[in-house]
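name: query_chain
kind: protein
chains: 1
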Amino acid sequence: MGASDYGDDDDETSGPSWAPAIRGPVEEGIALLKTGEFGGIKPLLEREKLMKAGRPPPTLSQRLRERNMNRPGPVRREDISRSLVPNTHGTIVAKYTSNPYSGQYSADSSLYYTCVQDFKLHIYDTSAPPIEPTNTVDSHRNGGDHYTSMKTLNTIQAVRGGWTITDSHLSPDNDRMVYAHMSTSVFLTRTRDGANEQTELSLADQAPRSGGVWGYRPADQFRIYSCRFSADGKEIVAGGTGNLFVYDLQGMRRTVRIVAHDDDVNSCCWADSSSGNVLISASDDTFLKVWDRRSLGVHTKPAGVLVGHTEGITYVSPKGDGRYVVSNGKDQTMRLWDLRKMTSHSDWENLPSHHYGLGRNWDYRQGVYRTPRYDAHPNNCSVMAYRGHQVLKTLIRCHFSPEETTGGSYLYTGSSDGRIHIYSLDGQIVQVIDRSKSLPISFDPSESEPNMEDRAGPRQRRHYGIFHRPGVVRDVSWHSREPVLMSVAWGAYGDDRGDVAKHEWKDLGKRGMKLEDVVARDAQKGDDHSCATLGGTRNGSIPGGFPQH
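structure:
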């Protein structure tokens, strides 16, 4: 962790020059798709069968009609929406006077929330219509600290500590929020409470004060960087300076403390959305560790270790099934892990104590990554690796696409080059969204896209309010039921002003129509087999679909 340094890097290329270009789907990724653990495989097989026969894939309206006529029971949302990947550069929907560190939808996507370096937490109602757009952002002023075209439910002034809020998370019922700010505590607050009441949850060991004075003081010092509610909302897992903690919200006490890593724990999570027994920690020591709480009373050893990154790990995110997690690393690689294939603790202890990265003096915050000595740890146990984005300057986050609409078959991440990268499970880059081309807040994100060529020149860029690309896209969130992304980006070249953009799926061939417009158009065309063209795909094939042989 550290304050970000910005260089004058004007390179427009995407991805590391040393990484081999992905020319087609990777066999290991195809095998994962065939397991059925990342959504149904029947629609993919049907589509590939049509393409091999030289027949065009059905339009959206044709798929809907076919399902309604031939399939008993309700239509699965995934069957219709799996191929709909957000494909627009988006529209700014919130602007801040400081850089945002995270931005996520709630589990049901009814809320969207951000935490900002000025120690403000913003919570928005995503079900409300946007404020009527105008040509000036002044009309969107909200409390003097940011502009937004979204309905703001609450802006919370956090307790100050460190230089920023490093993480925040909503409870499953959307009623509470927990956040960390690089102290020995996390803080609990209500999402809709105008009184802004906050509760400090100390994770430190307590010891009597010296000199016989009644009271207690922290017996140790560390910093918390990451915090997450459990699926039932009764516990919080937190990670920090080498440690992993669990806090019981019913008993209001810390129940678990593990000296987990030799370096900072930048991120932590629960592996599944049901039991709460398995914890994952991700550290700057290059390892992810898997902890089974059922055995922690006997020993404090991890159940296993995920070995593969050669530099520190910035983020870990679970699929929610207790099997798969995805991580971002400072080795410019996103890795997919199957917990069933983790390295045992005893085998990990016997590995050579060797650093496989660029060297101890390399600092990712400087924004330069040289050609690495190793593509992966020699004992790599990850099942897939994804390259093309940049993990520099700050702790870039990554996630699985929604289970309900895509089966979790895409992985997506922010990037320090100011872009959003969406990967198919099979290793291919499906979509790259450039935040430098996001429209200003005066535009309605749901309206049709203006002609991209109109924004190519300096005069047009000034007209639309687009002056330079963002320095970093730090976090991205995919709506659980719609093909919509929200991204938080930092200002470029040391500019501390960040923003949020909304990126929808639109049919780019016809003035950027939304899903319902495309269905209506296709229904009018009847048997016309024209198909919406998704950016980043060819021949209408579902991204992540099986290759033709």
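note: Residues 2-14, 133-143, 211-215, 527-549 have pLDDT under 50 and may be disordered.
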